[in-house]
Amino acid sequence: MHDLAPMTALGASEPRTDMIGPVTIIEAPDWALASVAARLGQETVCQSALEKLLGTAAPGIAGHVSGTALGAFWIGPHIWMVEAPYPTHPDLAAQIKRACTNIGSVTDQTGAWVRFDLTGQDLTRLMERLCNLDMDRMQAGQARRSIIEHLGCYVIRHADGITIYGPRSSAQSLHHALVTAAKSVF
Q1: Are residues 118 and 102 part of one domain?
Q2: Residue 175: what are its φ and ψ, rounded to 5°?
Q3: Buried b (16+ CB within 10 A) or exposed e, 144-155
Q4: Quick one: which of 60, 40, 57 has its CA closest to 103?
Q5: Contact, 99 vs 34, CB < 8 A?
Q6: Are 124 and 135 in contact (CB under 8 A)?
Q7: Cα–Cα distance between 152 and 27 in angstroms, integer?
Q8: Strand partners, 74
Q9: How far apart are CA 64 and CA 182, in angstroms?
Q10: What is residue 168's predicted lDDT score, i.e. its pLDDT?
């Protein structure tokens, strides 16, 4: 029998936290993710089912919402990424599949993405070094896809920080880009 130990995307047993100047970069591995794509002709029904799960309206174009237990962000026409704390939702994709049977295609995305949460002052200055998003105009509750260090990433603006989802297979490269940009700014 194998004796396997869980590791974060950065290859450690504990999530990494980097404090650089006024900014904190936190590896946040404890999030479950699932994509939901409404099937043809079922867009309205699928959106209603998703809203029932979220406890709030599904996000519109470039939107992000946080419901009572789940959050979601828009990734395309009638396509959303749903997020939830992993300890309370280890079966997130299965839960969504039960709610969207025959009306939506659900894919577990938990192992495909790495999440970094950025908090602190002057996050706009940091993000200017990383991507082409105008963070001064991006409001809390908005999500956009952008390129960071040649990687397709999702950037979510919160009232108190920024979340970045990037490909887990490139977690080290993304983390290096975040830390290097923070050191160059601060």
Answers
A1: no
A2: -60, -45
A3: bbeebbebebbb
A4: 40
A5: no
A6: yes
A7: 18
A8: 80
A9: 25
A10: 97
Same domain, 152 and 176: yes
| Element containing residue 19 per DSSP (H, E) | strand 17-20
Last residue of a domain, one of 43, 75, 110: 110
81, 143: one domain? no
- State the Cα–Cα distance between residues 31 and 106, nearest whole angstrom: 17
Tokens of 125: 């200055």
- Rounded distance, CA 82 to CA 67, Å? 10
84-119 confidence digits (pLDDT tens): 999 999 999 999 999 998 999 999 999 999 999 999
Q: What is the CATH number of the domain that holds 76?
A: 3.30.70.1520
Distance CA 37, CA 14 (A): 33
Asked whether the predicted pLDDT for residue 67 surpasses 80, the reply is: no
pLDDT at 139 over 80: yes
Q: What is the pTM of this model?
A: 0.94
Give the number of domains in the chain: 2
Q: Are 149 and 130 in contact, with CB atoms under 8 Å apart?
A: yes
Residues of the domain holding 100: 31-110
- 98 with 77, same domain: the answer is yes
